[in-house]
Amino acid sequence: MKIEHVAMYVNDLEAARDFFVKYLRGTSNDGYHNETTGFRSFFISFDDGARIEIMNKPSMENDKKSADRTGYIHVAFSVGSVEEVDRLTGQFREDGFEVLSGPRTTGDGYYESCIVGIEGNQIEITV
Fold first, then answer.
1. pLDDT at 3
2. CB within 8 Å of 71: residues ≥ 6 apart
3. pLDDT value at residue 21
4. Cα 70 versus chain centre, distance
5. CA distance linking residue 76 with residue 95, whole number of Å
6. Closest to 120 measured CA to CA, from 79, 69, 86
7. 71-87 pLDDT, tens per residue?
8. Which residue in 33, 55, 73, 83 has a CA-CA distance of 20 to 30 Å to 8?
9. pLDDT higher for 53 or 68?
10. Is it true that 6-56 and 74-126 share their CATH fold?
11. Which of left, alpha, beta for 92 (phi over 0: left; psi -120 to 50: alpha)?
C-alpha cells in the first residue's frame, strides 16, 4: 500500500502551486475547475511519484494553525542531502519564511529543518 496523495485547502491556489514548484521542484498539472461549485485544484507531482493536491472553493474556514493542534501537523520532503537541507532552509529564511527549527539532527536521527510555509502550514525539509 502507498499513500496516493495528500490534499490541502488553500486560499491562494496559484501562490501555493508556485511555492511547491519553486522550492520543492514539483511539477503542476494544468488544474481543474468545476464551474458549478467553484471548486478548483492542482495536483503537484514530485520525482519519486508522491503528489499533493492543493484545492480551494468559494466557502472555506480559515482557522488558526497552532503548532500544537491535533491532526496533520506537517508534510516532510526529503531533498536528498544535508547540503540541500541547509541550502533550502537558507533560501526559505532569505525569502522571509519563518524557520521553526534547524537545520539540525534530531534525537531520532533525522537531519531536518521545519519552516512555516504556504498559508501557515508547516513543511519539514529532511535528507
1. 85
2. none
3. 97
4. 18
5. 19
6. 69
7. 778 899 999 999 999 99
8. 83
9. 53
10. yes
11. alpha
**Residue in the structure block whose three cell numbers are 480559515:** 62
Q: Find the helix or strand (DSSP H, E) in which 74 lies.
A: strand 74-78
Q: What cell was used for 4?
A: 496516493
The whole-angstrom distance between residue 83's C-alpha and the CA centroid of its chain comes to 20
CATH of domain 6-56: 3.10.180.10
The band of 70, judged by pLDDT with boundaries at 50, 70 and 90, is low
- Where are the chain's structural domains? 6-56, 74-126
The CATH class given to the 74-126 domain equals: alpha beta
- The grid coordinates listed for 112 are 531536518
What's residue 60's pLDDT?
84
What does the block give as the cell for 28? Answer: 503542476
Q: Do the Cβ atoms of 20 and 7 come closer than 8 Å?
A: no
